[in-house]
Backbone:
């Protein structure tokens, strides 16, 4: 903490369609990224969101944590692979 | 030895009377090339014959580079397309050619085990393969262990991840693969999966080399393709054609209607092509701009008296029923498409709204399944909207064509099974 690093690259939210049961929590938690179709399954924005868009990144993380089926994942696509957790 | 320009290459002999090992070796030679077979495969430019036309050498190299000392080669002869008969014809004409190819692929990637997957619903072909395996066993050559597997016949059971999952866990369900390229695995062991016809071509390349293989077809799409013709043909046939042969010539060779309304190319996840394009060469380079592809070599001939809307509806209804129902967009979306098409096929009062819904739903469903089953149906529906534009306008106006009322249909569709009757394991 305390170190502010300018982050390049972006992210996309990805769903595992086999796990997904259409609870719709992701649409509530990240409406800017997730739409629902007529059957209640998520339609996720495919365009890459820049990592600098912290508000959207935060709601994406809420969606990931809020998914009852744990079907969501934030996939980082950065041109400069920064330090990863693993 | 078979001459480079000689046809047929793969379908020597009589279907239903498979070559014995001796006959096979007398026809094709029993000596294989020495040196790097992977280089030979790369230079041959062979692409997968199961539908996706992915370069076989690229796939083999990917698996060869995987770590692990236990690897598998899987020969996919599931043939989920109801209109396709090429793999069963090949296996009941020349099973040893396919097995040769599988052994060559095993030596390229370093696999000790080869699994041949044939749908159990086709006992005649299963027996032909069994006999061929038995003949090889008696010969007791060195080489990988060959085994036969018989998953249930389902449309998606031949999808690569579903087939590997069946071998691994006895369930023919496609798997989610977020990253491409994806290495299929049985347990932890990498798997190289290729279509039976691809393996047969590898069997030829291993004998005669890449130069020989390129002797037929053009540079971008070398080789031959087994084509299954159904619909308005004298009788359903499988013919071997050189890639790049004009469609008209293929139809004539199979005794099909030579001025059809449209052709269904690739398979039930393929595309309609209007009968105006019969001079198009049959290869992916020429078909791609028209939105079609060679796919798994399926051609369904729709004659002038047939109705494309009705055929599309029947196929989509069956495809919707064959969904593995794992992913919401496929499980709910495909039946919805089928329902919209039913309104159009029967020219009901709701047909106008149904056409609008159909176009909108096709856009919503695309790309949202774990496998490409829904994408194939969407592609098929879109091509129908394009090719049968005038017929659809007539149906929307409430004047279903004469073909729509006739009981004769051209695209073969198995009887619909109820959901609880579908066997997946």
Residues:
């Amino acid at each position: 903490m305390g170190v502010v690093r300018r982050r390049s690259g972006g992210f996309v939210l990805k769903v595992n369609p086999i796990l997904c049961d259409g609870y719709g929590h992701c649409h509530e938690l990240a409406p800017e990224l997730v739409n629902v179709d007529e059957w209640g399954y998520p339609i996720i924005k495919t365009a890459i969101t820049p990592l600098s868009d912290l508000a959207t990144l935060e709601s994406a993380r809420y969606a990931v944590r809020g998914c009852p089926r744990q079907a969501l994942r934030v996939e980082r696509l950065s041109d400069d692979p920064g330090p990863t957790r693993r | 030895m078979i001459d480079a320009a000689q046809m047929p290459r793969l379908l020597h002999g009589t279907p239903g009377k498979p070559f014995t090992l001796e006959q096979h070796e007398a026809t094709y030679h029993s000596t294989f090339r020495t040196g790097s077979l992977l280089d030979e495969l790369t230079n041959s430019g062979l692409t997968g014959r199961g539908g996706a036309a992915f370069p076989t050498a690229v796939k083999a190299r990917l698996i060869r580079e995987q770590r692990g000392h236990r690897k598998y080669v899987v020969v996919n002869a599931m043939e989920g397309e109801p209109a396709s008969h090429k793999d069963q014809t090949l296996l009941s004409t020349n099973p040893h050619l396919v097995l040769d190819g599988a052994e060559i692929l095993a030596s390229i990637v370093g696999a000790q085990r080869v699994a041949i997957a044939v749908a159990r619903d086709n006992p005649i072909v299963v027996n032909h393969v069994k006999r061929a395996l038995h003949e090889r066993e008696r010969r007791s050559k060195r080489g990988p262990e060959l085994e036969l597997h018989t998953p249930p016949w389902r449309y998606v059971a031949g999808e690569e991840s579903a087939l590997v999952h069946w071998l691994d866990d006895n369930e023919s369900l496609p798997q989610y693969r977020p990253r491409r390229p994806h290495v299929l695995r049985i347990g932890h062991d990498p798997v190289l999966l290729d279509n039976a016809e691809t393996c047969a071509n590898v069997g030829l390349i291993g004998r005669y080399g890449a130069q020989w293989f390129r002797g037929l077809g053009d540079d971008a799409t070398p080789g031959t393709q087994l084509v299954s013709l159904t619909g308005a043909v004298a009788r359903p046939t499988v013919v071997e054609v050189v890639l790049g042969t004009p469609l008209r010539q293929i139809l004539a060779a199979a005794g099909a209607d030579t001025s059809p309304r449209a052709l269904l190319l690739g398979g039930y996840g393929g595309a309609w092509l209007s009968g105006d394009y019969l001079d198009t060469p049959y290869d992916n380079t020429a078909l791609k701009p028209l939105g079609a592809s060679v796919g798994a070599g399926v051609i369904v001939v729709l004659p002038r008296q047939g109705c494309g809307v009705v055929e599309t509806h029947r196929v989509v209804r069956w495809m919707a029923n064959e969904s593995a129902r794992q992913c919401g967009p496929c499980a709910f979306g495909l039946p919805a498409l089928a329902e919209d098409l039913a309104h159009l096929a029967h020219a009901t009062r709701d047909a106008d709204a149904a056409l609008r819904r159909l176009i909108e739903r096709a856009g919503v469903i695309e790309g949202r399944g774990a496998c490409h089953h829904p994408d194939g149906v969407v592609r098929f529906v879109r091509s129908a909207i394009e090719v049968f534009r005038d017929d659809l306008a007539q149906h929307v106006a409430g004047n279903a064509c004469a073909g729509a009322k006739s009981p004769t249909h051209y695209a073969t569709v198995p009887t619909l099974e109820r959901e609880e009757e579908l066997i997946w394991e």
